[in-house]
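task queued by scheduler; priority normal; single chain, no ligands, no partner chains; default sampling; output format set to structure tokens
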Amino acid sequence: MGHKQLSRKVAILASVAAFFTLVWAGATLSSNMASARGEPVPGISAEGAWARPALSGMNTALYLTLSNESNETLVIVGAESELAERVEMHETTLVTSQSAGGHAGQLMKMQPVATYELGAGDSLTLEPGRHHIMLLGLKRDLLEGERFEVVLRTASGAAIHVNATVALAGPHGYDEHDAHENDAHDHAHSTH
């Protein structure tokens, strides 16, 4: 094989490689742009999203089930909504405490978390008394039957648009004790 033929084959291979690189980059860019516009993120679903009613200036919690049917780990790094001054991802944990009178008890403590992580094929249910998303400082009343949007941000830069319904209880009901997630931001309370 002569030098000219070899150079020509290398040029063809380089062109083919460049073409496939552009196709891959375009598909990635298209996917990220689509998710930013509110189009579904492939393999990711958010179902059963709901929040309790609350008055302007108060807080409420968003609950839903996230499913990751993609082949990659999904990392949620934040959330936002035009309805609230701040939106935070939280988890509620049970801690043991000692009262001044020496009685041991358990305390439900809510705290912010930096991420929610779902491996490929995993689901995460955000529900009262566990993981949830707090909408802090509502800018207007949130009334039963209304629908609103919350955007979840992923580590990859995608935006997952979640449509939620305002309801007194979600699809699985709730324990009255868990209703306190709608109250003031400091949620520690005794469960003697």
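post-processing summary
- The mean pLDDT is 79.
- Helices lie at 3-36.
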